Amino acid sequence: xxxxxxxxxxxxxxxxxxxxxxxxxxxxxxxxxxxxxxxxxxxxxxxxxxxxxxxxxxxxxxxxxxxxxxxxxxxxxxxxxxxxxxxxxxxxxxxxxxxxxxxxxxxxxxxxxxxxxxxxxxxxxxxxxxxxxxxxxxxxxxxxxxxxxxxxxxxxxxxxxxxxxxxxxxxxxxxxxxxxxxxxxxxxxxxxxxxxxxxxxxxxxxxxxxxxxxxxxxxxxxxxxxxxxxxxxxxxxxxxxxxxxxxxxxxxxxxxxxxxxxxxxxxxxxxxxxxxxxxxxxxxxxxxxxxxxxxxxxxxxxxxxxxxxxxxxxxxxxxxxxxxxxxxxxxxxxxxxxxxxxxxxxxxxxxxxxxxxxxxxxxxxxxxxxxxxxxxxxxxxxxxxxxxxxxxxxxxxxxxxxxxxx
Length: 406
Fold this sequence. Notes:
This protein is of the alpha/beta class. 42% of the residues lie in helices and 23% in strands. The chain contains 14 helices and 16 strands. The chain has helices at 12-24, 50-59, 61-69, 98-111, 143-147, 149-152, 207-212, 220-230, 232-235, 285-302, 306-336, 346-354, 366-376, 380-405, and strands at 4-8, 29-34, 45-49, 72-81, 84-97, 115-118, 133-136, 155-158, 162-168, 175-182, 185-193, 199-205, 240-241, 256-259, 264-265, 268-270. Helix 1 (12-24) packs parallel to helix 4 (98-111), helix 3 (61-69) packs antiparallel against helix 4 and helix 10 packs antiparallel against helix 11 (306-336). The protein starts with a strand and ends with a helix. The relative contact order is 0.13. The model has no long low-confidence stretch (mean pLDDT 91).
């Protein structure tokens, strides 16, 4: 059945959904509206993992191949704590420039007959666009979701630490962590490549360090100069690149975790960051956006009745997000509790960095957890016990958190 779909927001989620729907039925009338001019997106590199690439290949080999051809990959991590360095093998990860990813998805969408309207902002106060389905894929600041915030039950919870998203001309050949001690506490960065001549570098620190170093008062040039000095060992003399916000606002942010009680209202549905966010330290934002698109396209294929399709989509994705939201919550907490781990031997600290998603870690002495985790890697019975106990602790803590908010 031919349907008319309007996607508001030209990020990865909206573009990939338009591709999937056109592949399902070329007769669908699909338009993507993006308020910014084409090619003006902000962002450095985004990360994804082998599992996502396999799913993209299964649904659209052409776009998956283009993404792979324009990505860099790594299979280990490096951590530097002061002048000490340690390495650990890891899963195969990929980085691609956000700008390049959007170019590839836009080109694929156009080739399938999707209309892309750049420089076109939808005003929710004027009513929804005329369509069978309107998709709010316009990010964490979604105007469509905000206009109906009471219905969606939107909640934004700010994190404690400050962070800034930067680029650099230093090309990291693996995922790199660096922790630097200052007179005002620790500051850390993680860097990863996304192209032949660029990498992403995310810098984070606690509030006392942020103000103690004067980053709350520094302009962008002063901030970059200070950070280049602090992280000179991993940058090898390369420059950091800021984004110079057009409105003059500080590029430093506090990450905000977005949740929504429901994801749809009549024929309006939330997608990607408009529906949910997970802390950047687990590197899942782009993956979750594209997986939302896969789930929504699948639900629309299975159900011609729109309310049933949207209910299935919401149910499926909320369930799939639970373990990732838990992982993101504990990952953010690990960095907020960095003094608990930073003075361990580097190989122990790095091992626990890799275990930061665990709901058990905050409640077990770090050295004991390290020994138990090492033993669990050798004994199947301990692995099973850990897998059983972790979710129980997570559910208990989550329930107490919800109760405390009432």
